[in-house]
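Running log. JK asked me to keep both predictions on one page so they can be read side by side. First protein, sequence followed by its tokens:
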Amino acid sequence: MFGTHDLALFTLTVFVLNATPGVDMAFTLVATLRGGVWAGLAAALGVSIGCVVHALAATFGLAALMAASSAAFSAVKWAGAAYLLWLAVGMLRSGLRHAPAAEVAAPVHAPVGALALLRQGFLTNVLNPKVALFFLALLPQFIDADAASKTLAFLFLGAWAITQGSLFLVAFVMLVAPLRRWQPSPHVARTLHLAGGGLFALLAARLALADRP
């Protein structure tokens, strides 16, 4: 279809990659636990829009620049790591803040603006060069050498991966949303903030230390 092959294997590969814990899943999880289903869906939508940017970049060659240029890769990598660290610091500050019990517990379940979450989900994804290189490395393996239009094949596979990834995140949000009904004690709420901040700090460190393939 559209000059592609082995779509069943492509679907399985994308699923395995979607199910592997990473920045996108962690951000969607935190957004869902803090704001509920709609917050999680907003975060997932932001992630998906970021994937659209990466797919288009891979299709039209911008991702190839990051694959070939260490400077370009490093620039995006450090920007992404800095943004993740900024998110981590915000969560750690919430966890370390000395506040009355009600104020400590509130941020875990407090509603968060959908547009803000969409923007944050977009930035966590689009500033991750590994996502761009994923599209660049994976998609060509499922495109026929004699495809009439490799650009069309790229766009088709990119749209497939984005749709599948979006559906995975929606299912993930629905799966973890019931956990939000649990009312944590102030101590547990503070611990959740610290754990979330530590997770994003770890992800920032992993991204900062990532080598260009």
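And the second, directly underneath as requested:
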Amino acid sequence: MYLEEKFLQPTIPNAFHWFNEPAKYQVGKGLEIFTHEKTDFWQKTHYGFQRDDGHCLFTKQSGDFTLMTQVEFRSQEKYDQCGLMVRGDRKNWIKVSTEYENETHSRLGSVVTNLGYSDWATQDIPSSHQQIGYRISKNGRDFLLESSFNGQDWAQLRIAHLHRSFEQLEVGVYACSPIGKDFWCRFQSLAISKNEWFLL
């Protein structure tokens, strides 16, 4: 299923469903999310804890695809984040976002969780960035993760692999606030299209 959704209607489109519905949300001028307190996605590695209570608006997708969004946000507390997620189950998923660190810098990056263990790959960027585009392209069980500050020029963040195979994935946008609450973000669009990543 390919689509381009700008969330201009007054209700969530029928093709989508919530995973951990947020404290508050609204649509009509994009999808705005306000997070519950201390919500997160992480599995075991280093920190030891398991969290699976962040907010996602998902649709189901089979085969190869490219998933893309543009999101604006106003971070308040450390680790506030929003972006894209591709999910098989609680032990196997990928997310890409920017996690707020402090007023000076944030961490643009991704988490790939395989077989119940998460990793975290990051690069520092100025916290003055409050609008970013993210893109995930799937080719088999391999994934290309990219970001863009202007919606036109895309930079590779990483290439990753999911060890488990799933006939269908849940794909869409997510937001969470591991320390604070009421983190606000607005997803201006969400597009699912034919896979744009081709291996040479």
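Observation for JK regarding the second prediction: Residues 2 and 193 are 5 Å apart (CA to CA).
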